[in-house]
Amino acid sequence: MHAYRTHTCGQLRPADAGKTVRLSGWVHRKRDHGGLLFIDLRDNDGLTQIVIAPSSPAFGAAEKTRAESVIRIDGKVVERTADTVNANLPTGGIEVQASALETLGAAEELPLPVFGEPDYPEELRLKYRFLDLRREKLHKSIALRSKVIASLRRRMIEQGFTEFQTPILTASSPEGARDFLVPSRLHPGKFYALPQAPQQFKQLLMVAGFDKYFQIAPCFRDEDARADRSPGEFYQLDFEMSFVTQEDVFNAIEPVLAGAFEEFGQGKRVTKAGAFPRIPYAEAIAKYGSDKPDLRNPLILQDVSEHFRGGGFGLFAKILDANPKNAVWAVPGPKAANRAFCDKLNAWAQNEGQPGLAWGYWRKKSEGLSNVDMKWLAASLQTLQSQGRMEEAEELYDQWFETYEPVGPALAKIGSKKRALELYQQLDLTHEDAVFFVAGDPAVFYKFAGQARNKVADELNLSDKEQFAFCWIVDFPMYEWSEEEKRIDFSHNPFSMPNYDHEKFLKLDPGDRETIENITAFQYDIVCNGVELSSGAIRNHKPDIMIKAFEIAGYGREVVEEKFGGMLNAFRYGAPPHGGSAPGVYRIVMLLAGVDNIREVIVFPFNQQAQDLMMNAPGEVTPKQLKELHIRIVDQPKG
Question: CB neighbours (10 Å) of residue 457?
Answer without folding.
Answer: 20
